[in-house]
Amino acid sequence: MTPSIFQEKNLKRPEDVFNSLGNEQFGKEWSNIPLRILQGLENKATLKKRYVRNQHLADQTFKKFCEYLKDNNVKIYTTKHSLDSKQKDTKIVKWARHDFRISKSEFYLIETDTDKYGDTGAVSRRQFWIEMPKDKNPMSFNKPGCKELFNKEYIKSIFHDIAKTIEGRVTHEKFAYELSIFSKDKNLQMPKRTWVGKNLSKEIENENERRGF
Questions:
Q1: pLDDT averaged over the chain?
Q2: Does the pLDDT at position 34 exceed 90?
Q3: Number of helical (H) and strand (E) elements in the chain, helices listed first
Q4: For residues 55 and 79, what is the distance between their CA atoms, to the nearest angstrom?
Q5: Farthest CA pair distance, the chain
Q6: Which run of H or of E encompasses 210?
Q7: Which helix or strand (DSSP H or E) is residue 109 part of?
């Protein structure tokens, strides 16, 4: 039996790749909620306090996801004709263009046509899939070069949650200690005092000013 193009190329749905990237970035903190927020299946009323944090996870991961898709080494496959086309040929073909965007709610590939004068034409939507490596570690999001040890944006996003556990004046030492407590049951590696002093001094200064120190 001839394998389908999905088996042959190991094509994955964008939602699956998005979730794998989120899990790689945020570990045990990741769940299905960020994707559901993007798809409009969860809202502030149902999530309450968890909404802001999960919205941040969703936005950060979607940004990384879109950057990943723009990499020249990433191969995207889509239907020969768009969802808006009258032709219903379901053939799957490799996508060669790079002037596209991804819709957050539907995870469609959005293409905008331009005429020879540079004017914007029709917008079309396409389902798409991503070719992933077949090795033991199929997620290849990490790029060559120096890897940042700690996710600064993530730590900034939880800054106020950590700071409110500290009484009195906030210091680099106190903040680093509370980070270590926060990370104990989350399987996360957190930075020490020197990293906090180098990267979060402004936030700590603003917090102490707010507290009247």
A1: 81
A2: yes
A3: 10, 7
A4: 30
A5: 73
A6: helix 201-210
A7: strand 109-114
